[in-house]
């Protein structure tokens, strides 16, 4: 069985460096390339840390929890991958929970809050947790980091306002002027709408009211139907969430609206499914993988008693993925 000394020899580093990587400590300074070399040596030698001894020494369980609203939401796939990879770098495993099923006294919450179960908790979907659950979480002795904007806890998030602005500016550059924003509710949706509003204001246009119909396919369908009831129908639509864009496409088909010839559509967030739809959906890809990695690192700062460098991730910023659901405005709309 390989030892830390074997790993140090294979990586060409000191034993102290290997120990720092294994224990996830910051007392030993090293380049990221050095850390990578140590991790590669550990993998090549099939090195397995003595987790029991390490946990007793550090008073840690080497497990963190991540609570998401709707675990099956494909938007969260890159977020989970980022969390898993960063957690593995700290020698930790991840316990998953669904915010929609968490209630005060639930089995998962009871296990989660048991003494010594986890070293810290990541949450996205704080608004879905009722007051009793949040009160129990606040009383938990281990640190909590929110993977979205929060008031009472350290937090880190992607730039939702910038995403709304990017989507709207793209449509403005395609000569659209009657653009609406549909779907969503809550703080992050308000931020995306503010980005839409900012772009419309900069173009000298009056923003349409936010049709906050919620999330998911039905919300997208409802949003489109409401938008088309306006005295002047829109020529383009920014959809708050990419899964709601599926509902927009379905409702457009039912209403006899051709996308993109009669209506251009851009969704916020991106999942692999969108390139397989017809038309394939133009989307603003959010740095969810980076959010996952940054969230774990910020959580481990809190675990170590250091202040967390949270806030909005601006590098990388949201990225426009151009597909087939949006096109330049033609005379048919004049």
Automatic annotation (TrEMBL):
InterPro entries: HTH_LacI, LacI/GalR-like_sensor, Lambda_DNA-bd_dom_sf, Peripla_BP_I. Keywords: DNA-binding, Repressor, Transcription, Transcription regulation. Pfam families: LacI, Peripla_BP_3. PROSITE patterns: HTH_LACI_2. It comes from the Bacteria. Residues 2-58 form the HTH lacI-type domain. The keyword Transcription applies. This is Ribose operon transcriptional repressor RbsR. It comes from Nonomuraea maheshkhaliensis. The lineage of its organism: Bacteria, Bacillati, Actinomycetota, Actinomycetes, Streptosporangiales. The gene is rbsR.
């Amino acid at each position: 069985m390989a030892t830390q000394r074997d790993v140090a020899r294979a990586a060409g580093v000191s034993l102290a460096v290997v120990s720092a990587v294994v224990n996830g400590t910051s007392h030993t300074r090293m380049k990221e390339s050095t850390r990578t070399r140590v991790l590669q040596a550990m993998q090549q030698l099939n090195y397995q840390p003595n987790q029991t001894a390490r946990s007793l020494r550090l008073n840690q369980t080497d497990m963190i929890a991540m609570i998401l609203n709707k675990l099956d939401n494909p938007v969260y796939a890159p977020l989970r991958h980022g969390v898993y990879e960063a957690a593995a770098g700290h020698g930790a495993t991840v316990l998953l929970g669904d915010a929609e099923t968490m209630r005060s006294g639930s089995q998962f919450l009871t296990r989660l809050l048991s003494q010594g179960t986890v070293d810290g908790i990541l949450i996205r979907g704080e608004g879905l947790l009722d007051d009793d659950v949040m009160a129990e979480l606040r009383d938990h002795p281990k640190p909590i980091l929110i993977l979205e904007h929060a008031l009472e806890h350290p937090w880190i998030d992607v730039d939702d306002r910038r995403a709304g602005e990017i989507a709207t500016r793209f449509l403005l550059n395609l000569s659209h002027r009657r653009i609406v924003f549909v779907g969503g509710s809550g703080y992050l949706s308000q931020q995306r709408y503010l980005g839409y509003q900012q772009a419309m204001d900069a173009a000298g246009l009056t923003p349409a009211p936010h049709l906050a119909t919620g999330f998911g396919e039905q919300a997208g369908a409802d949003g489109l139907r409401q938008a088309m009831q306006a005295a002047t129908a829109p020529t383009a639509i920014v959809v708050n969430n990419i899964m709601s864009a599926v509902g927009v496409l379905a409702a457009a088909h039912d209403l006899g609206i051709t996308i993109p010839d009669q209506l251009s559509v851009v969704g916020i967030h991106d999942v692999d499914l969108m390139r397989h739809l017809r038309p394939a959906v133009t989307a603003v890809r959010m740095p969810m993988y980076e959010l996952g990695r940054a969230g774990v690192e910020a959580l481990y700062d809190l675990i170590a008693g250091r202040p967390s460098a949270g806030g909005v991730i601006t590098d990388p910023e949201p990225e426009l993925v151009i597909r087939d659901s949006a096109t330049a405005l033609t005379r048919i709309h004049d």
